[in-house]
Write a structure and sequence with these properties.
This protein is of the alpha+beta class. It is 68% helix and 9% strand.
C-alpha cells in the first residue's frame, strides 16, 4: 500500500467537524437520549452519565489531534480516547440492550482520528465487539442471540472496514499523485530558474559586447585610422599629423575611461556630460576633424532622459563609424528633431550605399536592440550608388505609456 498521511491531514477541517459534530449530536446522542425517556430510573441515570461522556469523547479527540505531541507517542492519546469511546458505546448498548445506530454514527471517528488503517480496524472492531456484547449480555444465554442490533453492528463494522480501506487507498494514491506533481513543479521551477539565470547571463554578455563594440572597438578603430594617417603624413604635413596625434591621445583617454566604467572601476555616466545636442556636436566636430568630411548638422536642444540620450548618441557614433569605414562619402548630414511621437535622429551620407537586406554585422543589430529596449526602432534606407539614410526613433515617456495602455 502507498504510504499514507495521517487522516487528520486531510479530514481535520473546521467545516467537516462542524457538520459531523452536529450529526453526532442530532443522529447519535439525541436519538439515544430519547430512547431512554421511558426507561427505568436506573437506565436514565446511567444514560445521563454516558451521553455526556460520548460528547466529551469527541471533544477530547479534537483537542488531542490539534495538540498532538510529535514522535512515536503521537497516536497514543487518540488511540486511548477511541478505545474509551468504544467502551462507552458498549455501555450504552448494555443499557439499551443494543446500540447499533449509535455505533454506525460513531464509525467515522475511528477512521478520522486513528493513526492508520490498521489502528482504525482494531479500534472500530473493539467498539463493534463492545456494542455487540453490550446488546446480548442483558438477555443472558439464549439460542436467539442473533438479534437485529447484533447483525446491524457486524454489517456496519464490515462495511466500515471496506469503505475505510478504500478511502485510505484512494487518498494515498491522490497524495502520491500530488507529491509527484509537486516534484515535477519543483523541478520545472528549478529548470526555469536555471534558464532565467542563463538568459540573464547571456543578456549581460550581449549588453557588454554591445557596449564594447559601441565604445572601445570604435575607439580602437579610430585610433588605427588616425595612426595610419599620421604616419603617412608625418613628413609632408607635420601640423596635420600633430592634430591626428592629439586625436589619438584624446580617443585613447576616452577609451580608458570607458574601459574603467565597463569593469566598474569608475562611475559610469554612459556618455559625455551635457545635452544630447552638445554631445552630438562634439562627436561630429571630432569626426569632421579626423576624416576631413563635410558635416552639416541641425541640432536643436531636445529634452530627453539619460537612456534615450545615450542610445541616440551610440547610434550616431556607430553610423559615423560605418561612414568612415565603408561609405566612401564626402558629405554627412545629421538632423535631431523632437516629434509628437518622440525624439528622432537622422543621419545621411552621399557614399556608395549598400543592399540593406545583405548587410551583416554587429553594429546594425546592436543599434536595433538598443533602441528596441526603449520602445524605439531603427530604419535604414540605402541602395548602391545613392548613399545611406539611418533614422533612429525613440518614443517619449508619455507617448510610450499611452501606446502600452
Amino acid at each position: 500500500m502507498v504510504p499514507l498521511p495521517q487522516p487528520a491531514d486531510w479530514f481535520l477541517t473546521a467545516r467537516f467537524h462542524l457538520w459531523y459534530g452536529i450529526a453526532w449530536l442530532a443522529v447519535g446522542i439525541g436519538p439515544t437520549a430519547l430512547a431512554v425517556w421511558d426507561a427505568s430510573r436506573a437506565d436514565q441515570y446511567a444514560a445521563a452519565v454516558l451521553l455526556p461522556l460520548l460528547a466529551a469523547d469527541y471533544g477530547a479527540l479534537l483537542l488531542a489531534t490539534r495538540r498532538q505531541v510529535p514522535g512515536p507517542r503521537a497516536a497514543l492519546v487518540p488511540s486511548v480516547l477511541l478505545a474509551l469511546l468504544g467502551l462507552h458505546i458498549g455501555a450504552v448498548s448494555y443499557v439499551l440492550e443494543g446500540a447499533a445506530a449509535l455505533f454506525v454514527v460513531a464509525l467515522p471517528q475511528f477512521w478520522v482520528f486513528a493513526a492508520g488503517p490498521r489502528s482504525a480496524i482494531k479500534l472500530s472492531g473493539l467498539a463493534a465487539a463492545c456494542t455487540a456484547l453490550g446488546g446480548v449480555l442483558p438477555q443472558g444465554w439464549s439460542p436467539h442471540l442473533l438479534t437485529g442490533n447484533l447483525v446491524a453492528t457486524l454489517l456496519a463494522y464490515a462495511a466500515g472496514v471496506a469503505i475505510g480501506r478504500w478511502l485510505y487507498r484512494f487518498v494515498g494514491l491522490t497524495r502520491a499523485r500530488a507529491d509527484a506533481l509537486a516534484a515535477e513543479l519543483a523541478d520545472a521551477q528549478r529548470r526555469l530558474a536555471e534558464a532565467n539565470q542563463r538568459q540573464g547571463a547571456a543578456d549581460e554578455r550581449e549588453r557588454l559586447a554591445r557596449d564594447i563594440h559601441d565604445t572601445l572597438a570604435q575607439g580602437f578603430a579610430s585610433i588605427i585610422v588616425l595612426a595610419e594617417a599620421a604616419r603617412s603624413g608625418v613628413r609632408t604635413d607635420p601640423d596635420r599629423s600633430a592634430q591626428q596625434l592629439d586625436s589619438i591621445e584624446r580617443t585613447a583617454r576616452e577609451n580608458l575611461a570607458e574601459a574603467r566604467a565597463l569593469v566598474g572601476a569608475a562611475p559610469r555616466t554612459g556618455a559625455a556630460p551635457g545635452t544630447l545636442a552638445q554631445a552630438l556636436r562634439r562627436t561630429l566636430d571630432r569626426f569632421a576633424q579626423d576624416t576631413g568630411l563635410t558635416v552639416t548638422a541641425e541640432l536643436p536642444d531636445v529634452a530627453c532622459d539619460q537612456r534615450t540620450r545615450i542610445a541616440l548618441l551610440r547610434c550616431a557614433q556607430e553610423s559615423l563609424a560605418n561612414v568612415r569605414k565603408h561609405a566612401g562619402a564626402t558629405t554627412v548630414g545629421v538632423v535631431l528633431a523632437a516629434r509628437p511621437y518622440g525624439v528622432e535622429l537622422e543621419l545621411t551620407d552621399d557614399g556608395r550605399g549598400f543592399v540593406v537586406a545583405d548587410a551583416e554585422g554587429f553594429g546594425l543589430d546592436g543599434m536595433r536592440k538598443r533602441l528596441a529596449e526603449l520602445g524605439g526602432e531603427l530604419r535604414v534606407t540605402s541602395s548602391l550608388g545613392d548613399g545611406t539614410r539611418v533614422l533612429a526613433t525613440v518614443p517619449t515617456t508619455e507617448h510610450e505609456e499611452a501606446r502600452r495602455t
